[in-house]
């Protein structure tokens, strides 16, 4: 398991590469050209500059999250072919700088959705929270809160220019059922996966967050059956999954260990974070440690270890600690993600030690010399 860190780029993240270098075991940066809108061309020199900036600090730049998919592809408009060509071209260019994995999602209109970005936790920190009862029928109300919460940063999936076109977007999605969305995803994959096979890049779809439809928009990557159907529909090792415990873990019906087991050979990237799910279906993001929330991260790490997972991982979101919410991106502060990375690596190292000690290594031998 190779530990990585999501970084939003110079001037677009309050955290620097020099700070990230001081977190033991973090060997790679998960990056993107964050100022690009979906469907825009990524120029070779821009890609090269960003990858070199990351590599010059000693990090690998093998994972990109995300290359966003244009809504015309998700809706299935005739213009999709042009956007798919641009996407395929970006894949080729990314392969040229050593990118191995692209994480993306196929959620209509928005990325992750929460009702409160700074929900107070009993320990005095705060974190992203989702309250079922207060999810606005009209996403415009949520948008205002999210834009305000992002401060000087734009929150991915909630960019002001996209929000200004919400009426148009919702009208375009009016006939897009789950079935059509699925067909449109398969259409997209049938065009880009051959390119991936040719240049050695793995596509890793991120599950929907939360793991159910919202605002009347369809969502299809949210449970084990849906993931199985999708992976079978385009059956290539280059078409895989970003296993995100925090997204799939929002739905109590999802058996996370079973999902990791079943798709182990198609998981190319893992997001390991904890959520606490309440009786009424609300959830809040909490610390990575076992017992803090509803997800048992050491169990998931153990299964990955048993399966010999050699792919990339990141701690994903964290709580905002020690007042950092004043400066950081919502969910992407420094401290809790650093704790998360160390905790997960600690679990991994413990498993490695146990493996090296052999099956009898942990036994207390009574009466031994
Ligand atoms: C995040 C997502 O919500 C999450 O768990 O990891 O924002 C993720 O980055 C995107 O959906 C990937 O496209
Ligand atoms: Mn995630």
TrEMBL record:
Lyase found in the keyword field: yes
GO molecular function, one term: mannonate dehydratase activity
Pathway assigned in UniProt: Carbohydrate metabolism; pentose and glucuronate interconversion
Cited InterPro entries: Man_deHydtase, Xyl_isomerase-like_sf
Reactions mediated catalytically: D-mannonate = 2-dehydro-3-deoxy-D-gluconate + H2O
Keywords for the protein's UniProt record, in alphabetical order: Iron, Lyase, Manganese
Enzyme Commission designation: 4.2.1.8
Domain of life: Bacteria
EC class: lyase
Cofactor dependency: Fe(2+); Mn(2+)
HAMAP family linked: UxuA (MF_00106)
Function in brief: Catalyzes the dehydration of D-mannonate.
Family that this chain belongs to: Belongs to the mannonate dehydratase family.
Protein name: Mannonate dehydratase
Organism: Saccharibacillus alkalitolerans
Gene name linked to the record: uxuA
């Amino acid at each position: 398991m190779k530990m990585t860190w999501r970084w939003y780029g110079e001037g677009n993240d309050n955290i620097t590469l020099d700070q990230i270098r001081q977190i033991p075991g973090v060997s790679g940066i998960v990056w993107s050209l964050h100022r690009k809108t979906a469907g825009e061309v990524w120029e070779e020199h821009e890609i090269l500059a960003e990858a070199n900036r990351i590599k010059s600090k000693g990090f690998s730049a093998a994972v990109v999250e995300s290359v966003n998919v244009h809504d015309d592809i998700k809706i299935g408009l005739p213009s999709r072919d042009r956007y798919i060509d641009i996407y395929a071209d970006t894949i080729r260019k990314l392969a040229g700088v050593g990118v191995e994995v692209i994480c993306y999602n196929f959620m209509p209109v928005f990325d992750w959705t929460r009702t409160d970005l700074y929900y107070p936790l009993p320990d005095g920190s705060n974190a992203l929270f989702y309250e079922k009862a207060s999810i606005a029928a009209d996403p415009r109300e949520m948008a205002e809160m999210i834009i305000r919460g992002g401060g000087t940063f734009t929150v991915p999936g909630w960019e002001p220019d996209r929000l200004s076109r919400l009426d148009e977007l919702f009208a375009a999605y009016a006939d897009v059922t789950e079935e059509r969305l699925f067909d449109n995803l398969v259409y997209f994959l049938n065009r880009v996966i051959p390119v991936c096979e040719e240049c050695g890049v793995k596509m890793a779809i991120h599950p929907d967050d939360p793991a159910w439809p919202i605002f009347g928009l369809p969502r299809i990557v949210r449970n084990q059956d849906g993931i199985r159907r999708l992976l079978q529909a385009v059956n290539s090792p280059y078409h895989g999954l970003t296993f995100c415990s925090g997204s799939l873990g929002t739905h109590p019906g999802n058996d996370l260990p079973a999902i990791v087991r079943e798709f182990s050979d198609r998981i190319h990237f893992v997001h390991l974070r904890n959520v606490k799910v309440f009786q009424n279906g609300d959830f809040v993001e909490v610390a990575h440690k076992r017992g803090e929330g509803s997800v048992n991260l050491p169990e998931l790490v153990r299964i990955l270890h048993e399966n010999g997972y050699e792919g990339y991982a990141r701690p994903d979101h964290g709580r905002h600690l020690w007042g950092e919410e004043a400066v950081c991106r919502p969910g992407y502060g420094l401290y809790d993600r650093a704790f998360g990375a160390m905790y997960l690596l600690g679990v991994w190292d413990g498993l490695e030690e146990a493996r090296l000690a052999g099956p009898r290594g942990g036994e207390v031998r009574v009466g031994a010399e």
